[in-house]
């Protein structure tokens, strides 16, 4: 392999394993038309905070944003507010909005990582089969009363057990003849997901409780209705820690996105990296699905929208995707709980109706190819 080609390749992946002084210039690192990370990341952070504050005003009873600000201020030493305002904003809506932020960020980050792991533009977090495993666990809890002794945690506990079992199954099969490869992981995850989805459907069909069947269907399409302060901290901590762990590998992810040969030429332990990424993805997706159900679209499209805005470098893609995914899901939840009130729409219905046209519009306005090149 010519030396010049190797040097060009190392520059292309952004000096993944080099000190910061060896990183390429911004012109070499990002195609024309991308937004500067120094501008887009602070802007996205502001949008996310404003989205969360505004979302607290929406519900069965609309509240002025000033009232929302007063309630939040009262929780941190400000003047007291009425008991009803405190109960509505802080007791009911705040956990739901914060959970939406965590789940949206987690799914978007997971989507960006899984697309890099399997090098497939159509990959999303549900490809791993973890979501289908969680669906089986949740369906079993709803239709059979499994883990009834766990109380309000029964559904999340059952979903997490199902997700863990599916992750172990997929990992075991995918590594039977060596390490994980993109093709083997895609095939194993797809087949496992299909089998587990069939089991979940069977559990629904065999139940005589129409209310349970309706609850399963609603959960399978995603909802934040079960949000509470007690259930909030686990997903928030998981998203923060695992996103930080993945971000620490951003240089290796850049190299992996360029291809396994490029990554190997840089001395990256590809097999170990893939195993670690699978474990992180399984834990991240399993936790998100356990608390919110299987929300479609977010993990598939948000990473692509992010790359259109900031390019393909993972040190920017990961935080930007987290912020975009968080804001997107918060507003999706606002639409889901207010558009047909008092009836609530499953989140996957809204993500498809709103997100698909938006993505097609962005795709039509800007030439885009997976990997960030335009």
Chain-wise SSE layout:
Layout: H1 3-12, H2 26-29, H3 37-55, H4 65-74, H5 83-118, H6 130-144, H7 154-174, H8 182-206, H9 210-220, H10 229-247, H11 250-258, H12 260-265, H13 270-292, H14 298-310, H15 314-338, H16 347-365
Helix pairs in contact: 3-15, 4-5, 5-10, 5-13, 5-14, 5-15, 6-7, 6-8, 6-9, 6-13, 7-8, 7-13, 10-13, 14-15, 14-16, 15-16
InterPro entries: ABC_BtuC-like, ABC_transptr_permease_BtuC
Membrane topology: Multi-pass membrane protein
Main location: membrane
Choose one word for the global shape. Answer: globular
The helicity comes to over 70%
Oligomeric state of the chains? single chain
Our Rg estimate from Cα atoms comes to 21 Å
Order of helices and strands: HHHHHHHHHHHHHHHH
CATH superfamily: ABC transporter involved in vitamin B12 uptake, BtuC
Short overview:
The protein is built from 16 helices and no strands.
Q: What can you see in these coordinates?
A:
With 374 residues, the protein is an all-alpha fold. Helices cover 71% and strands 0% of the residues. The chain has helices spanning 3-12, 26-29, 37-55, 65-74, 83-118, 130-144, 154-174, 182-206, 210-220, 229-247, 250-258, 260-265, 270-292, 298-310, 314-338, 347-365. Helix 5 packs across helix 14 (298-310). Residues 1-31 have low confidence and may be disordered.
